Amino acid sequence: MYRSSNGSVTPEKRLGQNCIVQPLLTDLYQITMAYAYWKSGKTQEHAVFDLFFRKNPFNGEFTIFAGLEECVKFVDKFSYSKSDIDYIRQVLPSNVEEEFYGYLGNLTAKGVSLYAMQEGSVVFPRIPMLRVEGPLIVVQLLETTLLNLVNYASLITTNASRFRMAANKLNLFEFGLRRAQGPDGALSASKYSYIGGFDGTSNVLAGKLFNIPVKGTHAHSYVTSFNSLDELTTKNLAPSKGGKPVDFVDLAVSWRKKIVSIFNVMLSEVNNGEFAAFISFAIAFPNSYLALVDTYDVKKSGLINFSAVALALGDLGYEPVGIRLDSGDLAYLSLVAREVFTQISKDFKRPSFAKLMIMASNDINEETILSLNEQGHEIDSFGIGTHLVTCQKQPALGGVYKMVEINGQARIKLSHDVDKVTIPGKKDAYRLYGDNNLALIDLLQISSEDPPEVGKKVLCRHPFQESKRAFVTPSKVENLLQLYWKDGKICQPLPNMQEIKERVVNSLKILRPDIRRALNPTPYKVAVSDNLYHYLHNLWLENAPIGELS
Amino acid sequence: MYRSSNGSVTPEKRLGQNCIVQPLLTDLYQITMAYAYWKSGKTQEHAVFDLFFRKNPFNGEFTIFAGLEECVKFVDKFSYSKSDIDYIRQVLPSNVEEEFYGYLGNLTAKGVSLYAMQEGSVVFPRIPMLRVEGPLIVVQLLETTLLNLVNYASLITTNASRFRMAANKLNLFEFGLRRAQGPDGALSASKYSYIGGFDGTSNVLAGKLFNIPVKGTHAHSYVTSFNSLDELTTKNLAPSKGGKPVDFVDLAVSWRKKIVSIFNVMLSEVNNGEFAAFISFAIAFPNSYLALVDTYDVKKSGLINFSAVALALGDLGYEPVGIRLDSGDLAYLSLVAREVFTQISKDFKRPSFAKLMIMASNDINEETILSLNEQGHEIDSFGIGTHLVTCQKQPALGGVYKMVEINGQARIKLSHDVDKVTIPGKKDAYRLYGDNNLALIDLLQISSEDPPEVGKKVLCRHPFQESKRAFVTPSKVENLLQLYWKDGKICQPLPNMQEIKERVVNSLKILRPDIRRALNPTPYKVAVSDNLYHYLHNLWLENAPIGELS
């Protein structure tokens, strides 16, 4: 009795684009501004907005840009439904002219041009990840949704990439579904963790929708659901290569008697419910036997029961996978487990036993992994939940969307806080490389300036500190902002998830190791051209009132 | 040209239940366990699971339970589609028996009973928010989705309720869409912030879907889009009560000349682009004029331009609403603004001017509000984004779902960490009240025990510390776990959002103020009955191996 498929939309279709990504997924003030623009005859003024952030997350010195595909899809489908308009009419004051609603109902993003960094590439403070140009009213109306789509996607991708660097070549799995911001927060977390460098997820729906490898074995409850060997109704298992099923329970029991001495434990102390659980799990999954060994006591129960069952599987030609540790001192327990596995491997001539996988999964963050690396451990694989999906160390990327030009005139947003002053004007962004294909600096220029050239000296200036400037002679120049959407069309193919995932890896390689490192990394340099510097500071002085101390 | 409505599902329908809340929104290990249970003939064993957390969030001593309605809807619709089964088949090993998939395809939650606390009520560590009973396989398969639906909902509701207490009677608006975990994270944030005590949201879609008041005026970009008064094409505004439109620009200009001396500023210093922006915004929204005054300089520009326009509106019979501050020293600037408004109110006999709304919205958290309260300020209304929706201080509630009984036998999950030991057995939870309708203690009992009675002494014990115990004589006893779903049906009406919102308010009133307070609150007591105490400790000793120091 499957759920009827007519009428109800399949999840794949529902999520080709997340159904709630729609023009009303915005702040109300975008719509009130839209009316005020309309009323002031400003709707068609040509506006340029930059989407950027001011500070790298996680005390780091890089960020990975993600969410572009969702942004392009959103712009592509931007239009208000009748139901949307009806709701807006209900929310705005009654004096709003009816003609405005007709105008809104016909609005699309066709006049908009969307420039963006490549999805999955490293980005830095103040360099626009998106530059959005077009009729003021539409460009303004896109703001909140674009920020929503870029902020968390970039944050979690960056977080995942940091875990990836900390874990080096070990396996990383995202286990955060139960701790994410609701169902979709969790799906985004799975998707962008994978892009950022994870090997898979526990989230089955994410696996189905995004084609991400899914992983998982069993929980403590599986173990506690068994009390004794008597409960096992299925006892037989056929050898891997076929043949007559044997009594697998007997086999495991006899192995346990044999090995218990290695552990310096009395057999009566080893938990039988756990043993039954492991046996039944191995019978169900003889080719992928991975057991959670900390329900009662790792050393005095879990490892013994696991090993007995694993050895029994070996007798029948199956390769057990390994164990998972979910509590206690992970470094120590992993060393104990490895020692036991090595011992058994030697004593019983089971070479692969020494290489059993040890997975760890208890509240792990980037620092835990770095500390484990220092202490020494035998973990092969991490399952990471809360700290990954909530980005506990910094749960939001402060991406903003600022007007920088209107009708060809630069605009600046001043602030009491210098860090919040925007860099005005329509700009291009270039990445200048030195030798060895390492990035030296990101340079913002006024769009009308000639691009920097390979082998030619460029003066690069700190946007706000007069004395900080340097000549750079690039051996390669990359134009960072590419056109993705114009005249109602997607202008270049959007890479698939695997391609974005690879770009993350390659993009991090252009950074010097001291910029990438976790502890006290060196800031990557972001500069403005000499022209832009003067342009910025002249505009600033023009707009800032002269203060008077009082 | 509205988006066609045939075929495409309206957002309301799409979100009656969030379309991605479905059985595959789970960890893979639930499904591997399901197969192992099936293979072991354990699917129909009667299991009891508790969903609870171990520590209140935000260094607080209470939590608000939320997400129940979503949980009930999920259980109600629980079934795998053909497409789900096809995907599961693809993910599980090839040796899994085909019959299992047929079994899964027919599975529903009909055999499950769901007990829960009331949505919107205060809850405490170790007391189950949900108790789920039924066939082992189904109850296990519900785990991850239930946790996902309860964890963030309860966390953000609790966070919102803390902001509400800090802000006392001031207005609170949720502005977090751009910083949430993607689109749905934002919708959940809007919904549960409202339930937790906020007055509205900026998120238009949340307003539409959940009928939450939406708020918003304009951004800095609206101000920077104007450069001078010459740009104003619409200049006239009719008086509030009708009549001949007047030149509103002239009126505002003349007011600005009149008031500039109050501010001790030269007219040439006041920004004209900002003035034009405010004028145009007032023409569009004469009845709801609220201006963001910090684009250039609050004291030397924003307040002057705002006041001139507000006075001009007053001339035409409109009541301006107020200002928003989004940077700088909010306490100081709000005092300055209030002083100016009071002065103008006096000088020009505009009594309502003194009461203009002052809204603040820059990266505000609970501590900011508490500190503003101490400093003294004149803010009436807060717009809160990042810290609210990401729950920056603690971005995840560590809710867990633990098996406590199977086939009538209690189960315990031990751990190296005493805090992680579960309280075994099928339990009921009672709240015992003292006089004044204040809650004294939450008491867990074995379900077969008689409920505590009013006026009768009960021995309440700390679950783990032998010497901590007390007699309590309740003047009221509340049975906390109510039956919400049984035999495939919802058993009692689910309250609407307004009712849940009211319950939050009332539920917090049963706590002593020292339990509710932000700084060093007193822990609320959670206890077990004497019977449960002994039951727990006997089972613990039975299951824990005797260690041996080595």
TrEMBL record, chains A, B:
Enzyme Commission number(s): 6.3.4.21
GO annotations under biological process?
A: NAD+ biosynthetic process via the salvage pathway
Domain Nicotinate/nicotinamide phosphoribosyltransferase, which positions? Answer: 321-422
| Record PTM text | Transiently phosphorylated on a His residue during the reaction cycle. Phosphorylation strongly increases the affinity for substrates and increases the rate of nicotinate D-ribonucleotide production. Dephosphorylation regenerates the low-affinity form of the enzyme, leading to product release.
Asked whether the UniProt record includes Ligase among its keywords, one would answer yes
Q: Which Pfam families match?
A: NAPRTase (PF04095), NAPRTase_C (PF17956), NAPRTase_N (PF17767)
Q: Which InterPro entries match?
A: Aldolase_TIM, N/Namide_PRibTrfase, NAPRTase_C, NAPRTase_N, Nic_PRibTrfase-Fam, Nic_PRibTrfase_pncB, Nicotinate_pribotase-like_C
Q: Which GO terms describe its cellular component?
A: cytosol
Q: Where is the Nicotinate phosphoribosyltransferase N-terminal domain?
A: 24-151
Mind telling me what this protein is named? Nicotinate phosphoribosyltransferase
Its source organism is Zophobas morio
| Higher taxonomy | Eukaryota, Metazoa, Ecdysozoa, Arthropoda, Hexapoda
